[in-house]
Structures are given as C-alpha cells and as structure tokens.
Amino acid sequence: MKLYCLSGHPTLPCNVLKFKSTTVMLDCGLDTTSVLNFLPLPLVHSPRLSKLPGWVSKDGSLNLEKELKECAGRVFVDSQPEFCLPERELLDLSTIDVILISNYHCMMALPYITEHTGFTGTVYATEPTLQIGRLLMEELVNFMERVPKAQSATCWKNKEIQRMLPGPLKDAVDVWTWKRCYSMQEVNSALSKVQLVGYSQKVELFGAVQVSPLSSGYSLGSSNWIIQSHHEKVSYVSGSSLLTTHPQPMDQSSLKNSDVLILTGLTQMPTANPDGMLGEFCSNLAMTIRAGGNVLVPCYSSGVIYDLLECLYQFIESANLGTTPFYFISPVANSSLEFSQIFAEWLCHNKQTKVYLPEPPFPHAELIQTNKLKHYPSIHGDFSSEFRQPCVVFTGHPSLRFGDVVHFMELWGKSSLNTVIFTGNYHTDFSFSAEFINQSNLILKLILFDLIFLSELNFHQVSKLLKEVQPLHVVCPEQYTQPPLTQSHRSDLMLELQPPPMPYRRCSVLNLPFRRRYERVYILPELANSLVPSEVKPGVSVATVSAVLQSKDNKHTLQSVPKAPPVAPSKKRKRVMEEPPMTMAPKPLLSGAVPLEAFLATLQKHGITEVKVEETADGHILHLQAEDTLIQLEEDGTHIVCDNNEPLRATLRDLVLRFLQKL
Amino acid sequence: MDSQCVSILPRVCGVLLVSGSSLPDDTSLEKLLDWFTTVAQTGPSLLEACPCLVDFVSKVAFNYASGSSILSFTLKLTGLIGASEDGFKVLKECSVLKLVFNPQHWQEAGLWEDPCLRIGWIQGLKMILQHSEALSFFAQADLIEPLLQLQTDPSLFVASAANQTLAQVLLLCQSLSSVGHNGSKNRDLEHNSEISQLPGSQQILRLLAMLLVRVGPPLRDTLLLAVMNSLEELVTTSCSQLTVPLLDVILAANSGLRDDCVPKQRLIRLLWAMLNMKKPDDVMQAAAAVLRSHQSDPALSAHSARVLLLPLDIVTGVSLLDENSTGEQTTLVCFYLCNKCLLTPFKSMLSNPAEGELRILITEQLKRKSCISMICVCLSNIPQITLMASDRLPCPQRLIVTAVLLLLRLCCVDSSSSSPGCVEVVRFITGNSKVQKCALEALLVLSKSPGVKMVLVEVFKVLTEYLNSPSSDPSVLQKSYQVVIKWVGVCPDLSCITDQLREGFIQAVRKRACDTRWEARDSTVEFLGHLVEVPSCWTFTEQETEPLDVLLGGRRFTVPLLKEALQDPESYVRASSISALAQTLAPSWQDGTALTQEQEDIVAQLQEVLFQDSEGFARRAAVKYFTAWFSACSSPSSCWLLMQSMPTVLSQGVADLDWEVKLHTLELAELLLDRAFPDPSPSHSYAVMSDQDHRLPIAGQQSDLLSSLKNLVDWGVVSALLCGVVDCDRPVALKACQLLLKLRGIVCPVMDNAADTRVFCQLAGASVLQQVRKIQEIGKDTHVVSEACSEADEEGICASVDPECVGVCEVLRLLDLDEKLSILTQSSDHIYNSPLSLLQDILTAAAASSPPGQDSRQELVMDCY
C-alpha cells in the first residue's frame, strides 16, 4: 500500500492511495499561493499599478521591463496569475481509478487532473460539494476572464534568468509547471465526471475496496472518506470541524479501528476559542465603522461567510450598526446565498428543524429582506449607484490579486481609518496578504483572523479525536509534526503520537506501514454442506476442505471439485484441457499432544522398559537405550530416530498415533 | 417578657407534648429556642419567667413517644435552663438532669440511633457546662466517655459538635482550675493524647487546633506536652489528608509560645519537617501556611518564601532563588524581556540539597495538568512574600515582578515569547484564565514594591497585550484594567509611555468598548471612569499631567466612547457609562467651567434614560449622576442646566418603579434641602432637630426661609418628599419622612399662618393627594389638630383653586410625621416575627392538625407554597 503526495499544502491536499488493485486520488486542492508573485488584476484602470516601473537588474544586464514590475522593493510578474498544480510527474494520472472529493475547497484543481491527462475514472462527491464547487470555479474563471491580459510572461521562468531574480521569485519552485486558469468549458467537462454520493453510502470499487463518505462538519456537504477492504481500513480526514457551525456534525465513530488515518486540513492557529475570535471580528468591525472607516472582508463566496453573516446578524442591533450597509459582491453571490438555504439535509440539526417551521435555515435571508445585506455580481452596474460609505464589504478573492477585492484595496488602501479583516487561513492567505499591504504602500489597517478555524480542527481537538478513534498509524503533512515557525515553544501545536506520525511533503511516496495479511474467501453452500468438522478442543472444530479456488472481480470463491466424469466407454482420448484436476484424498491431519506418563506406560506394555527421559526446551527426548532409538516429543512435532529397524519405527509410530486425533 | 406569651406558653407546652409532629414549620422549634435564649439572656432567669418549662422537660423525658425533634429540642432546652446555677439546682432537685443526660436512658429507649437526638444531647450538654456545678455533674455522671465516642460519630455535625463540647469542657476546667477540678481535667487530657495517636483522626486535630487557640498557658503547656509525641509521629508518617489540620494545630500551638521554651523549639522542628515532606503539594501548603501565620522564626519564613517561589522560578527560568542574585542579573533579565532574545538560561546554583530535590519533584509535577493549582498557590502567596523584610527575601522584589511578567507573557495565547524555564508547562498555562487572574492579582500587589518603577513599560506592554487578546476572558480583562489603574497610580512619572505604546493601548481600549461580551464593555467603561480618579502625576519636566491624558489622550477620547455606551443594549453597561461620565466630568464641575454642547447632550440623554430605560440600574445611575453633579458643583444655582433639570429628575425619580431609584432621588432632594437651609451648627444631626433652635422668629429669617422654601417647591423637592412619604416601599417612605421632619423642624416654627407667607405645592399623582386628603380628614375627625390650625387648613389647603395644590406648612403640621417615623423605623416583619405570633402559630397548627381540621391545614400548606 502506497501513498503518493502530490501537494505540499496542508489544507489543500492532493494525495493518491494505491490500495489493493485500486488507485484512488484523495482530493485535488489548488495551491493558490503562487499568485502572490503576480500583480493584482484591477477591475478599473489603476494609475498606481499602471505606473509601476519595470524591473532591470542592478548591473543592467538583465532587462525584463515588460514582464516584471517593481513595487515597494519587491518584484511582481505582470501577467495573468498562474497556479501551482498538483505534481504530475510522480505517477501516471491516467491510471487513477477514482477521485474522492472531501469539500468544495479541495476540488479546485479538478479540471487540471481530469482534462488532458487521459483520466478515464469517476469523481465522487456529495451534491453540495459539486454545486458550490461549481460556483467557486465559475467565480474563479469569471475573475480571470473579465480582465483579460493579452500578455503571458514566460521569459522570467527561464532557469538561467530566474536564478538572477530577487526575492521570492528566485526561490519559487517548478515555475514551468505553473498554469493559467482553466476555462468554463474545462470546468463543465470535469464536473460531468462527478458522480453524486450521500453520507455513509457505500461505493464498491471493482469489488476490491469499498469507499464511503462521512460527514466532517467542515462545510455544506463536506466529507471524510473511509476506504476499506474486508480486513483493512484507511480513513482519510480532510477539513473537519467539531464545532457546531452550520454543517452537519462530524461523524467520528465511523473512523474507529482504522489501520491508517491520513490527516490533513488542520489549523495551526494557536487559539482554541472561536467565540473570542468571532467576538473580536465583530468588535473590530464596529470600531472601524464608529470611527467613520470602511471594512473590507476578503473571503470566499461560500463557507465561513455564512457563519460570519449569522454572527453579524446577532451583533448588528446591539452595536448600533443598523444603518450601516453590508455588501456581498461576487459573480456567484446570489447563487451562493440561495444554495445555502436549499441544502437543508446537509445542515446541522438545529438548522434542519427550521426548515419545517418553515423558515430559512440561515438568518442572512432576513438580512437581505430588511435590506441590511445587499449582494451584487460585480462593482459595476447597480452597485455603483447604491454604494454608501461607511460600509462593510465581503468580496473575493482572498489572495487580493484578482476579483472585486482589488478595486476596494485601491479605493480604501490610502486611509488608515479603513480596515481589512482577513478571515482566511493564518499560514497562507494571511501572510501573503499582510505582505502585499506592507509592500504596496497601503496604509489601511490590517487585521488577521484565522476564522477558518471555524471549520478546521485544531491540535487540541485532534488529539482528543485521535484518542477516541485510535488509529494504528497516522499520516500527516510534515508541517504538523513540528510547532509553527513563529511559535517554536508551543509544543502543544504539533502532533505527538505513539507511534510517531508519518510526515509527508510534496512528492513524497510513502510505504504505508502495514501488510495485508488476510483476504476474504467465500465458500459455496453445497461445498460447505459436505464438510465434516471434528472438534479439536471444546468450541473449536476443524475440517479439511478440498476445493477449487475461483477468483473473479477481486472476489474469491471456493467451489466443490467437479467429480471426475465417468470414463467414457470410447477409448478415444479426450482433450487434456477438459480433464478435471486430479483429486487425491489428502492425508489426515494430526492434532493433540502426547502425554509423557501415559506414553511411557504404553511403551512399557510393549516391552520397552529402558527409557531415559531428558527434558529439553521444547519438550522431551526419550532414549530407548536397548533399542538405541530416540523419540523427540516436541510441541509441534514428534520425531522417531531409529536406524534400520523399520518394524520398531512403525510400532512406535502407531503408539504415538494412538494419542493423537486425526482429521 | 410579654405577659400574653407567658399565659399562652403552658398551652404551647401541652401541644408540644401531645402533637410534636404537627408544627407549623420545621424551624418553629429553633425559633422557640432562640426566643428562650433571648429571654434567658435579657431577663432574670428563664425559669422565673416560664416556670412551666421544668414540668415540660420532665414530662418529655419520660415520654418516648415524642418525636425526635421534640426530644432534641427538650435536651437543648434543658441545657438552656441548666446554664444558670439556679436553674441547674431546680433541675437537679427534680432529678430530671441525670435522666435527660444519661445516654444509657436513650439507648435503652432505642432513640440514641437518631443523630437528631445525639446532637440535642451534645448541645444541651454544651449549654449546661457554664459553671462548676455542671462540671462536677459532668465528671460524676461519667459523660466524658460517650462524648469522646461521639467524636468519631458517622454524622459530621454530631462529631463536630462533640468536638466543640470537648473544647468547652477543657476551657471550663481551665477557668475553674483554681477551684480544683484536676481530676476531670487530667482524665480528659489523657483521653485526648490517647486518641491522637490514632492515625487519620482529623477530628482530634481540629479539636486540638481549636483548643490551642483558646486555652491559657498552664493548661496549654500540659496539653502540648501530652500531644507532642503524637504530633511528631503524625508528621513523620506524613499523610496528605492530614497536612492542613496538622499545620493548623502546629501553628495554633506556636502562636502563643515564647521563643525560648522547649515546646516551641520542638514545634519549629516540626514545621521544618513539614517543609521537607515528600509531596510538593504538601510542602507548598505548609509553606503557605507558615507565611500566612507570620512566624517569628526568620529562617523558617525565609525558607517558606523560597519554597513558594520555586514553581515561578522553574516555569519562567528567572532565577529568583539564586543565593547571590544581584542587580546585574535583574538588568540581564530586563534586557531579556525587552529584547525577547534567548539568553542561555541562568539556573541558580543551589546551596541546599533538599531544595534541589524539591526542585526536581516540582519540575516533574509541572509537566502535568496539576501544575495549574501549584502555580496558583505560588502566585496567590506573593502578597505574603512581599510583606517580608527585604533582607529575608530570596531575591529583590523587582525580580519577582519580572518573573510574574514573564509568566503572564507565557499565559497569553497570542504572545510568541518563550521562556528559558520549563517548556512543558506552557501547554497547560497558555490561555488558562485562572493562572492569568492569579498572576494579575500578584502584579497588582507588586506595584507597591520598591524599585519596580523601571518595569512600568513592561507591565504596560503586557497589559496591553492582554487587553488586545481575543481570547482574554472578561474577568481577565477586568483584572488587567485594575492593574493598569494601580500601576499608573503608584508611578510618579509616566513619561516612559511612548506615543506608540499609547496608540496600542488606545486601540485595545477602543476595541474592548465594542466587545461582543457585555462584561468586557462594562469593565472598559468602568475603567474609563476610574482612570479619571487616579491622582495627577508629574513628568520629569515638572509638569503636572493626568494619567488619563497620558494613557488615552484625555477626555476628548473617553467622553465620545462613554456617550456611545449610553446606547448599549446591556443595562449594566449603560449604568456604568453613566457613572463613568459623572466621574469624568466631575473635575470640570468643580472648576465651574462653562457647559459644553456635549454636556447638554448628555443631560438630555440621561433624562431620556430616566423616562424610558427599562432597567433599574441605568435609572439609578442617572439619578446618582445628578447627585454627583450637584454635590461637586461649587455653586449649583449658577449652573442653569443643573437647576433646570432638577424638577424633572425629582418628579420622575420619585415616581419610579424601582425603590432604589426613589431612594437615590430622595438623597438628591436631601442635598437640595441642605443647600436651601445651610446648617448653622456643624454638629447637628437632622432627625433630632429641636424646635427650640428656631423659635426666635426674626423678620429677616422669615423672609429668607420663605424664599428658600419657595425655591424648594420650585425645584420639586417638597412634592418629591410628599410623594415619597406615602410610598409603599418602607426605606423610601422612611427617608422621605425623615427629610420632611427635618423640613418641618426648620420651617414650621418660624412660619406663621399668615396668608402672605403661604407656600403652595403641586402634588402630582392622585394617590398621593388622596392620602394627604385622607390624613386631613382623619385629623379633623379626631380633633388632633388645633382649631386654629384646622381653620387654616380649610383655607390653606382647600382655598387654592387648583385641587392638586396643598399648602406646605399646613401639610407638614397635619401629617403625623412622628408617628409615621416610629412605624417606619420598625422593620416590616416585626409583627410576624414576634414570639407571640410564633406561639400562636404553634397553637393554630396543632388545632388545625386535629382530625376535623385536617383538610384545612393541608390547604394552609398549599397556600404557603
């Protein structure tokens, strides 16, 4: 059993598991950190961005003015942003049988895998995952396509040139494999390969393994996966949450008794107090609005935003924010808000019951009704006429490189009254956004919140979970096996297990540390009928089986041995092929132990009196001195060493056999 | 004693004898006993007052059928009667005493099993043991044996009561020792020492501790000698459960002894032994107890301090216990704190091998979850440590401050600091609000330590970090604010607070003012108010600065925040913001600076609060705001806004639903009253004004009074008082009554009924008017008021065209304020709590429980609940 790790990003995993005869891809997350090296794509002409000077190396020998621009001491690529795809050289992607998707954030690389690689398998995902995933992909494509850039920078990727570039560009890996965003057509083609599954539904893969999704509590329709054969069980835990937010709670008990547990999607943010963080989000928001500033919340158009809106719904009145407009801007804003209300069966119990009242499960419906929350597909059109400040804007993309958020950064970046509140992942989204703001000479206030913790397990919860689930082995990204760089003393922010977890990184190939020992074999009723079990000890009966083993579609069956057809009267030779397998009655199997005292008595009865008994580690050695014969009685065997006296050997053998049971 | 009670009592006794179970409620026997106790204490003798009791006691003693509660009551009653020597004689004469206090008697009756009876027996015995007669009875009847047995009774209450009684026996022995009762004393002692050899007897240890605190020298020495060996044995076996009681005993024994006596030295040795026990928890407990008891032995307390500081030393790596810790090291640590760079941990070189062992043990314990309680014990004893003389401290106090600061950093979730100390502990203490609170508490105390001013910036940084942290518990935030106030208050020079620090602090406070948790908002608002009251300080350029200006940039920052908080959805926060506004504006009121538009807005908002706020807290605070304003204002009459709002505040306040609002309003009215009639003699108290003082009417005085009274009426004081005096809430009516009496004392003697001096007052609210009219009617009917006066009323009260108008002086004379006052000063339940009512209740309940009344009694019970 092997695990191929195609992505090094701990929360955007892409792994391939070879288990029995199947090849299963677990998630295909798209690592968006590569876009940090690119200039933002402004929706409207930005004088600031267009006036940036081109980059020329200090000695003037290298001139990439057209491709690279300099901004506040850092160099950015002036081209359409490109993504770092999962590794494609590690194994032939066309051999993948199935792809299991755990949530809509972890499927963004799907078109890169299913298209143009020869992939012929099936993708399994739940319905909300498919629908919201489609929205997110649509949004991404839309963000890219509505501000087309004719130019595609490639010169800087030249190894020789890249070596001489400054800063992070120089250290970027595999830049040649970076790809531009896919098209809508590719998205549609990729999503047409998705087959929908429900929680706990069992899907057979070639009769060899069974896969089944479990609720993971991370987002609408998010799932962990169990991949199991009759005797082995691998659990794949992706983004999961034990908190009570909007999705169905996590199913933990089904993860028990796993041989291997693959653990991804944890948060390393130290705090474990979600109420405190949400409260902090609200207070910062209120503080900025009261001081006359605007609040920008870069976020994905689905997921945590539902929880944020719910939290704000309760807060708006108490903080006197009733008159402050809240805007949600995304090409899919409307669909996202609507979709969240219709997947009732995938919601937590509390929200499910609302549907029967009937009430919309999420309170953002009311916010929209009362005009407190307004949503627009883009900053163009209606939005520009209704825009009022101070306000709160939720929009994407969290990378601040493309989408409507770029516009607001340009608009509000120059006043320290304004605040941008980050709710993404602490270790990826934040660090680059913070850097971006620092390096773009923007002075608006930046607040970082790992609100993704709302939907990700932290280490405290994980250690609890693992204590309960008790897997034999744990596999996890290497980041989880050491404390975060910024807090090296926090030994509580890493996984400490016995046996230690197996770390993986991009391009690792792990031999999972367990052997398959058993295989299930079926026995046909008529064959079973013919068996005659005999009891070897109380409660245990044994029978010998003579049968033909038939293996088909990874299923093994024992069938009765076909009777030899009566010998044809004709003397014509039959074809050898049709001859049945030779049937020979097997020798009986012996069981039991030879009791020493009784055996000696029997020997004496048969006239063997001079016996010297010697005790050994495994049993006894009897020396029949007169006959010059040795009998070794051991736990699992008896040897009679008797030279040239066959009758004596046969007698002795029969005497031994008297004490043993035959099968 | 009430004669009515005496006449009823025999019937009550009869009822108790017959139907003890049918009492009105289960506390009535207790109440009865309480009443008897007061009678015995105040009157001449209980038996003289209620002679029927002896008969009752002897009857019950033979009547096993009485319920156990009655029996228990009787036993206690016997004790009460026997407490006086006369009563004792009477009881002895009718041979009740022997029977009642004979355990055998009750055992044979099979009643001894009931703990209720046993406790009655013990308490009766304890009550009786007041005189030598009783002691000899106690010795002769051989009651010590059963009493000692009861010490190990399964019922905790019984065991504890037995303990106390034993102590009482010994104390009585002591006080009578001159009379000569050595026999019983010695026997008792023998028993004590014997039993204390039994391990695990916490009761004995408690008894010992109790005795050692109370007994005098001769007996104490004997007692100590008797138990010393057993104590030593117990200390060597060192059972964790006994640590605390053992310590109590040793410390109690130790406290009264001279230094040079032998037992003292043995006790000190015992304490040393306890400080060297195996389990770190026990050692810490022992050390804490030693410090708390203010031992005179310097070495002992110094060692205890070292033990208590050990966990802090280990966790933070700041070497607090280094024998030669010098100033140099402090600077090093400060350098470390400021630069957050990792120096190689400087571990203390230990001179004491036992301490080394303890260090290892504690270090082990700190790796477990239980480290939290240990660190908290350490932190909560820091106040005791700082009280020690500096030469006995293991390190300078500022080093302790440094360590506490580092610990606080480690506890803070968002902090990235690490310590050179124990790393494993971090996972348990990070974000633990218990540790955080203990450490902040310690920091609060440490602000007083000498030479810590240099770390003010560090303290400020850490506190800002806490205020900023999203994971800080509201209680932690509150503590942090307190610490800020404290430290800022003791630091004479705040020039070290840089602009950057201030900016960070302002951001944090601003954020907490918008917190989602009301507790956090409340603490913030309170903090803003308290900060104003911190005394001014001087910068090193000799300029006087207010801490509020230094930390938050002054009132222009706080007032808008507080005004915002007036709209808070939580009433506590609104109330706090009103108080804080009063605190913030008080200086400007004192200076008499001109009103700003902002202040006018605030007044308008406060009046709105008074009118509309649904919660009492906010309305109370609003009334108090005006009280504070009025009392702070140097010349209120010149402040038009204040005087203009008075009628509204008073009329609204006194009509409030909340009695506290009404009371606060009357306090404001009192201020106005005092201001209108300034007190000529500073020593006078208002309620007991003698009319003599104002008997000499001077023409000028009358006109002055007239104008003042008119002012009072205009401000609405008089109508507020008249409203208040008929209020259904007793404290309100009482206060109003007192104030009206005061007003009457000032006004009525001087003012005659001449028409030109009449002052009329509008009475809003029909009920008030009705009451006044009613009183007026009664006054007429009973002719209490003089003819002339009632004539005046005819004209005075009724003559005015407006039916809601009354003449002030007339009403004051008419209302029987003195009678009202005497009624109001009695507590509202004085009737229901009288002994007569208790006795009647018992009788009624008994009557009701007799067969025909069965149902009605049940109904009664139903009614009660």
UniProtKB/TrEMBL annotation, chain A:
Domain named Beta-Casp: residues: 305-436
Gene3D superfamilies: 3.40.50.10890, Ribonuclease Z/Hydroxyacylglutathione hydrolase-like (3.60.15.10)
Record's keyword annotation contains Cytoplasm: yes
Keywords of this entry: Cytoplasm, Nucleus
Region (Disordered) residue spans: 554-575
Subcellular localization: Cytoplasm; Nucleus
One GO process term, biological-process aspect: snRNA 3'-end processing
Family: Belongs to the metallo-beta-lactamase superfamily. RNA-metabolizing metallo-beta-lactamase-like family. INTS9 subfamily.
Annotated protein name in UniProt: Integrator complex subunit 9
